[in-house]
Each structure stands twice: as structure tokens, then as C-alpha cells.
Amino acid sequence: MAQVPESGRVEIAVCDNVVYVKAVGKCLQKQGIALHEFASAMRKAGCREVILDLNECAGMDSTFMGTVMSMKTSFQDADGLKVINMNPACEKQLKGVGLLALLDVSRKAVVMPHLRLKKLGDPAYGALERMEIILKLHKELVEQNPDLNGEFGPCIEAIEQEIDERKRDGDGKAKS
Questions:
Q1: Are residues 142 and 149 in contact, defined by beta-carbon separation less than 8 angstroms?
Q2: What is the pLDDT of residues 70-129, one digit of tens each?
Q3: N or C: which end of the chain has fewer CB within 10 A?
Q4: Which region, left, alpha or beta, applies to residue 7 given φ > 0 means left and ψ of -120 to 50 means alpha?
Q5: Residues 63 and 134 in one domain
Q6: Nearest to 131 by CA among 149, 151, 150, 158
Q7: 55 to each of 23, 24, 176, how far by Cα in Å?
Q8: Closest CA to 74 of 98, 45, 108, 94
Q9: Are residues 82 and 135 in the same domain?
Q10: What is the reported pTM?
Q11: Does residue 31 share a domain with residue 55?
Q12: Does residue 169 sit in helix, strand or coil?
């Protein structure tokens, strides 16, 4: 595995209705939301498959895992999500939460096509929209593996309460 940076980024390219994604470093909430937004737009635009390269991914948080599972669901009626070059850290992490068995993972090294990858930008959401996406992605995790409800159920409830409070208060902005 290559030396990976501490902070994460997602690099993307699209060619022949295939979305190529390279996760680099620690992929967290910000990268997860941006990738969810991009992959959703690409599915609506007619893309049929996602190739996710995890060779340089140093790990992922639950929001990024939710994005991975959301892409699996969104593209399942087409050619699907294929995970390539999974490193041992990501394999251990996904196996630990029971998601590895749900993914189509290539067990051999795969060379990505020579495409010009570009860094995916930050998501352009307000606090309320961001929280609604995080909620959706965590619900996706539990839907894919109901055993995760014990771990993520309280988080989901807390996010739902916060969203309800913000809507009641008319506050879609981050609290200081």
C-alpha cells in the first residue's frame, strides 16, 4: 500500500457511463457527503457503474461507509458498485461492521484506466441539508446491516432530534 496522507480526498473521473472513484487518506463526513452528491448526480445522468479504488484509503467514518452503501443501492439496477484494490485496513474496518460481505470486491490487484482524475470539491450544503444527508447515509448503513442498529440507532435518533429542533426553530445554519 502506498503512503497515504492524513487528511482525505476523493478523486473522480467519468468515462463511458462509468464513475471512477479513488479514495485517498482518511475519508470522512465531508468527503462522504461530496461523493454522495456527485454519485447521485451521475446516476441521474445515466452512469451505470461505480469503480471504487480503496488502495490509498487510510480509513473511513460511518458517513463515508454510508455513502459506499448508498452507491451500492443506487447502482444495483445497473452494473453496480465494484470495489477494487481494497487495502487491509479498509477490509478490516468494513468486515468489522458487517458490510464487507455485502460488497462486490475484486480480490486481485486492478489497474485503473489512465484517466485524468480530479479532486472532488467540498459539498455546498447548509447545516440542515448536511444533517439530512448524514441521517440518510446512516439509515442506509442500518438498512444494509440491521445488526448496526445498536451502534448507529442512538446516533440516528440524535440527528433526527436535531433536525426537528432546527426545523422548528427555522434554523438551517450551524449553531455557534
A1: yes
A2: 999 999 888 899 999 999 999 999 999 999 999 999 989 998 888 999 999 988 888 899
A3: C
A4: beta
A5: no
A6: 158
A7: 8, 8, 38
A8: 45
A9: no
A10: 0.87
A11: yes
A12: helix
